[in-house]
Structure formats: structure tokens, C-alpha cells
Input
Amino acid sequence: MNVMELFRLDNRVAIVTGGNRGLGRQMAQALAEAGANVAIVSRTAANSAAAAAEISAATGTTCRGYACDVTDPAGVQSTVEQVLADFGQIDILINNAGINIRRPIEELEVEEFTQVQATNVTGPWLFCRAVAPHMKARKYGRVINIGSTLSIISMPDRTPYASSKGAVLQMTRTLALEWAPYSITVNAMLPGPFATEMNLPIKEDPELYKTFIAKIPMGRWGEIEEIGGLALFLASDASSFVTGASITIDGGWTAY
Output
């Protein structure tokens, strides 16, 4: 087989949470360009449907939008069941939905801390649990959890986010061990700074932005299009012997 064929996703079905914008939208586009049919999940049906329509028109694949609060167990389960009813299978899951709250610990409310954990940790856990029976029965799956460079290093004023992304990394490793006998791979992508909506407060603060750039050997933030190649690799058969891995995409930040 030609090595390039290993990257094709024809007849595969992917769920991408938070797939209506930012890195999730770009990853969904990349998978569709490789032939996958994609279920776009976000909190708002209209936003999911709009992103799905744009991707479908651009790639010729079948994409559908779904509204789901990733912290709601019943909602996650019903969404997975609806995707299965609509597409017949689920081959790929990208747990991308996430939030961030930045402040010193003494200025945070407990509810804010638990809100970040619910979205960033419980959400991926619920989707993994929901797809598990289907993927295990078929003995095939590609699960990609979106962590962060703050899964392995940290910064001040990030206790909610860094705690959640550290947990995502350990969840990834544990599920990789749990699901390896079923030929389901589970890996984590650890992005550094990208110019997404979540990071606008940093980019719009000249001094803070300068501080971030100083830590990146490549001297810049990531362009949003640069996330797609790694997502495609981990979603495809090209990565069939890669599981339990955490791969940084951060311009060299964590190489120090």
C-alpha cells in the first residue's frame, strides 16, 4: 500500500466536539478533506449546522451538526446514539471542547474551578464512555483528546485550566491501556498558543503577548491551519501503532 493511502479517511465517521470554531473547526475540516464524514458538536445547534454545511460544501463529504452540552451525561449519550443512527458507525472521536478561566487562585470561586473541570475533563470522559461499547464491538477506534502544553508545564493564574489539562493527559494514558486489546488508539495533542478565540485576551495584551512569544523558539504563535496535519495523522491508519502518546505542537516551547 502506498503510504499516502494510510492517511485517507474514506468511509470513516468522526465526532469533533467544539468543532464549530477555532482548532476544532480546523481539525474537522482536515478530516473531511481526507474523506471522513464528520459530526460537528457544539452547544448551539445553529452554529454546529453552519460549520457542518460549510465543511460539507467545501469537501463533498457528509457533515451534520449536533447541539450538546458536553457536561450532561444524558445529552452526551443521546448525541452519540443519534450520530450512530445518522451515520451507522463512529470511527474517530476528537474531544476538543474546552474552556479557560484565568485568575489567581484567591480570586477564583469554587464554581469557576469546577466549571472548567466539568467541560475539560468530565466532557471527554463522558464521550469516551459513550463511544466505548461501539468501538470495542468493532475493534477499531481513534480517540484524540486535546490537552495543552499546560498538561506538562504550567503558568501562574491557571489552576483551573492546568489542572484540567493534566487530567486529560492521564485519562488518555489510562484509556490507551484499557482499550489497546480492542485496537482502539487513544492519544493526546498538546497545542501551544494558537490565535483562537480562547486566547484573544493574551493576544490583545501587548506585554502578555510579548511574554508568550519570548518562550517560543520559533518566535511566533501557531497558525490555525497547522493543527490539521497532526489531527489527521492520529485519526488515520498511519498512526496504528501509536497509542498513549502525548504530542506537543507548540513551536518548541516545551523543549526548553
